[in-house]
Each structure stands twice: as C-alpha cells, then as structure tokens.
Specification:
2 helices; globular; about 25% helix; 5 strands; alpha+beta; about 90 residues; five-stranded antiparallel β-sheet
C-alpha cells in the first residue's frame, strides 16, 4: 500500500482538516480515528451502493456522513459528534 496523502486519500484529507482545527487524528488501517477531550470517533471511507458506488465517509456506527469530496461537511459532522461526546 502506498503512502496515504491528503491529495490521494479522502481520509487523510479529512484528517488534515480536523487536525488544523485542533483535533488529534490518527490514520489507521481501520479508518481515521479522531480524538477530542477524551472522546473518540472513527471515520471510514467506502463506496456507497445507494449512490452508485461513489466514495462516502461513514461514521463509527456505519452511518453515512458525506460524499468523500465534501470534506467540509464531513469535518463539521465529526466536530459536532465529538462535541456531544463521541464514542467512549
């Protein structure tokens, strides 16, 4: 597997945006783990069958967040989710 960069990997791009907003982020084989004040949230990026196989971000519970090219929408979703406590 090649190096994951913000230019080539939607999760790396989302991580860069969240990191710039003060969140601790870790790109793992399971997804992007975002941490804030003791809460964490994992985001994955996979094709969404209901949208013709286009790449989407999905939350820890498997809920669709936003299309992979809608970084700002995904960032806001994760920020709001973590403000509410995220996963423990």
């Amino acid at each position: 597997m090649g190096e994951r960069t913000a230019e080539t990997d939607p999760l790396a791009a989302l991580g860069a945006h969240l990191g710039a907003h003060g969140f601790a982020v870790e790109l793992t084989v399971r997804g992007l783990v975002v941490r804030n004040a003791g809460a964490d949230y994992t985001v994955t990026c996979n094709p969404r069958a209901e949208d013709g196989g286009r790449l989407w971000f999905f939350g820890s519970g498997g809920e669709p967040i936003a299309e992979s090219d809608h970084i700002t929408d995904a960032r806001i979703f994760v920020m709001v989710r973590l403000a509410g406590g995220g996963e423990r």
